[in-house]
Amino acid sequence: MNDMNWLAIYPEILLLVMGCVVALADLWVTDEQRRPTYWLTQLTLVVVGGMHFCYYDAGLTTYAMQGMVVADPMGHLLAGFACLATLITLVYARPYAASRDMLKGELFILSLFALLGINVMLSANNFLVIYLGLELMSLSLYALVALRRDHAVSTEAAMKYFVLGALASGFLLYGLSMMYGATGSLNIQEVFGVISQGVPNKAVLIFGTVFVVAGLAFKLGAAPFHMWVPDVYQGAPTAVTLLIGGAPKLAAFAITVRLLVEGMIGLAVDWQQMLVVLSVMSLLIGNLAAIAQTNLKRMLAYSTIANMGFMVLGMTAGVVNDSTVWGANAYSAAMFYAVTYVLTTLGTFGMIILLSRQGHEAEEIKDLAGLAKRSPWFALVMTLFMFSLAGVPPTVGFYAKLAVLQALVVNGLPFYIGLAVFAVAVSLVGAFYYLRIVKVMFFDAPTDTAPLAAPADVRFVMTLNGAAVLVFGLLPGGLLELCKVAIRQALTT
């Protein structure tokens, strides 16, 4: 018990306690008075996120729960961004949920518990803790997708998400069990030590690695394990789609680093090849399939697959010289890509929520027609988001892609230069469907001529979101340096 170190997990304890408090407080709130629990949830996210950023600023790496949890800068930084993403999601979601009888305690409680699962995954130093956090997050998200119980499409999406998510969890759990059988430990650092010393069960390790990578690919939404992404993104209520497309991507990145880089770097020759295949297939399938979509949410789902391919590509670059500064730079470029992608996704789906109204879901590309005439400001902000996803300067998406490409070509190896050229080529193909959105907003005749109204808080946060995409594109050094510091300390402890 002397090794429990409760101080290191105070943010998670507070999040758990406040989730229970919100659940109890909701019992005394009538349907017309959901705002107290909403503001209590937002206050919780502000405090927990602030704690994580303060812990990151301290720059310390500590272990808790008898070594099963690690509180390091990478975990704290990503957890802080996850809290921020959830906070912004709920700001965007509030008017949408209120008009669809979804602004209930369940939305806030499940969001907090999903975030708790994310935090547990971000700080995991043990296979069982990773799985515990993964299941807590996943079960909360399954329930959120089915929150509109009388909506057939949402219920169908929840069933698909549950079945395929359970399959992915099974893959990951089976792979982790094989790693445990081969190394005799559930602790990530001890697994690293056994693998680096050379173990006789190499075949079992490789077989387990295959299942681990497959399970991670499911959670990332990388091809060919992407089949759940379009259906769930389209079928879920847009507010829940935003929740799925935001903070969970940060958790998926973190456990990929924890398992593959911190724990299984000795098997990098094996899992690197799998990541290359995943990234190439994701870039190709995601960008080509998105061109044919007319449903905006489904198009953005395929865009997510392509963007996850780009992020995975950055992780493959770090394997070549994992002990050098450039190896850490490659992983930090992938982390920077994940954070900036979430930032852009928040605004993109937030705009879809904003365009939706009572009895109408703005899910088709044609629903954006003539947005520039209805609201020039929101059309400009949406253009920034589309340019960022396409990688057009001076938005942050351009620099994120550039950072990954630099990590690929800096080694000077022909294979990686070829991967960089391929990534640029398919990104140019992908730019078509992003620019098509801009064309529809500015040059097509509007189907709805009513002025676009938005609550003051949504308008303010949307403006900040768009400004962040532009400012981080012009001045990316600060955020990239935060990612570099976090990754370097994670890899040296």
Automatic annotation (TrEMBL):
Subcellular location: Cell membrane; Endomembrane system; Membrane
Broad enzyme group: translocase
Highest taxon in the source lineage: Bacteria
Membrane topology: Multi-pass membrane protein
Membrane-spanning ranges: 6-25, 37-55, 75-93, 105-122, 159-183, 203-228, 240-261, 273-292, 299-320, 332-356, 377-400, 415-435
Pfam assignment, any one: Proton_antipo_M
Coiled-coil residues: none
Catalyzed chemical reaction(s): a quinone + NADH + 5 H(+)(in) = a quinol + NAD(+) + 4 H(+)(out)
Keyword RNA-binding among UniProt keywords: no
Enzyme Commission designation: 7.1.1.-
Keywords, ordered alphabetically: Cell membrane, Membrane, NAD, Quinone, Translocase, Transmembrane, Transmembrane helix, Transport, Ubiquinone
Residue ranges annotated for the NADH:quinone oxidoreductase/Mrp antiporter transmembrane domain, each copy included: 124-425
Cited HAMAP family: NDH1_NuoN_1 (MF_00445)
NCBIfam families: NDH_I_N, PRK05777.1-5
Family classification: Belongs to the complex I subunit 2 family.
Function: NDH-1 shuttles electrons from NADH, via FMN and iron-sulfur (Fe-S) centers, to quinones in the respiratory chain. The immediate electron acceptor for the enzyme in this species is believed to be ubiquinone. Couples the redox reaction to proton translocation (for every two electrons transferred, four hydrogen ions are translocated across the cytoplasmic membrane), and thus conserves the redox energy in a proton gradient.
Subunit relationships: NDH-1 is composed of 14 different subunits. Subunits NuoA, H, J, K, L, M, N constitute the membrane sector of the complex.
Protein name: NADH-quinone oxidoreductase subunit N
Species of the source: Pelomonas parva
